[in-house]
Amino acid sequence: MVQALEAGRFVARDIGGGDPERMAPPRVAEYVLQAFGQSGPVKVTVLDDPRVFERDYPLFQAVNRAAGTVERHRGRIIFLEYKPPKTARKTVVLVGKGVTYDTGGADIKAGGVMAGMSRDKCGAAAVAGFMKVVEQQKPADVHVIGVLCMVRNSVGEECYVSDEMLTSRAGVRVRVGNTDAEGRMAMADALCQMKERVLSEGLPDPHLYTIATLTGHAVLAVGHSAIVMDNGPARAVDHGLKLQRAGETVGDPFEISVLRREDFDFHKGKCYGEDVLQANNLPSSRTPRGHQGPAAFLMLATGLDKCGLNSSHPIKYSHLDIAGSAGDVPDTPTGSPILALAEAHLG
């Protein structure tokens, strides 16, 4: 197990620590294909067609528009899937934010805060790393799916802007409030797709995750720990506490934040024609409950808010903000939260 964990962290460090060119989206796809091969237990599928993005992943494609004008920066959505040899008793689905460089977009990062933004892909890097652990451990009865949403948030004549109205894969009308809140946009449609698959295929005991270096607020709140936020079904089984204990066991610490009604109210549409507000126009570090709100947005934009405890089809969902735990330049990426997730689901 130790060798498998370190192999996973190696993959996460390589992707997460790569510079904006070495690990641009197309090159991440090449790396993943090489790392997992074509005949191993983890199957890899790469999407690169902007027409498919426009149709099936419209929020992702909005972020990808500016970078899409430069071939070597064009976005990729990478799927990794492990199917166990025995009947699966549970399904773990991980969707990772893979922003290979974050300029902030039209709401550009100014004042010297853009340096280090090649680390904004550490969520997707951790998903790839966890899948490497799965590949080596080959759990007998755990079905695991990983999605890497690889995109560059560039500035240019094609970049998306605040006030744009976009319709998500779930049919939710989203008004853009801040182009520097691109991570939630990059993940939302893939998360919705995984929700659809869980429901249509009846996957056993599913748990959906988003993993992202999402907010500066998370760093202010808990320092160098990761944060777990559970929806109702996940909280009902004490998932946050279990993940926190798993992290304490392996040195991958988590703090627990609770989603409240006001987090959802904050993101509900305020203007005619919009269902959901993507973000306000302030940094998360200057926004009350700045790390909880994005989790609420992801639920609202994907329809996961309709999969709660009292619904006919409850689905466990947890958002992991690793902005504090992933490792900043010049330090080596940590691979968080691979160890905690492996202890919780594979240990």
From TrEMBL:
<protein>
    <recommendedName>
        <fullName>Cytosol aminopeptidase domain-containing protein</fullName>
    </recommendedName>
</protein>
<dbReference type="InterPro" id="IPR011356">
    <property type="entry name" value="Leucine_aapep/pepB"/>
</dbReference>
<feature type="domain" description="Cytosol aminopeptidase">
    <location>
        <begin position="178"/>
        <end position="185"/>
    </location>
</feature>
<dbReference type="GO" id="GO:0006508">
    <property type="term" value="P:proteolysis"/>
</dbReference>
<keyword id="KW-0645">Protease</keyword>
<keyword id="KW-0031">Aminopeptidase</keyword>
<dbReference type="InterPro" id="IPR000819">
    <property type="entry name" value="Peptidase_M17_C"/>
</dbReference>
<keyword id="KW-0378">Hydrolase</keyword>
<dbReference type="GO" id="GO:0030145">
    <property type="term" value="F:manganese ion binding"/>
</dbReference>
<dbReference type="GO" id="GO:0070006">
    <property type="term" value="F:metalloaminopeptidase activity"/>
</dbReference>
<comment type="similarity">
    <text>Belongs to the peptidase M17 family.</text>
</comment>
<dbReference type="Pfam" id="PF00883">
    <property type="entry name" value="Peptidase_M17"/>
</dbReference>
<dbReference type="GO" id="GO:0005737">
    <property type="term" value="C:cytoplasm"/>
</dbReference>
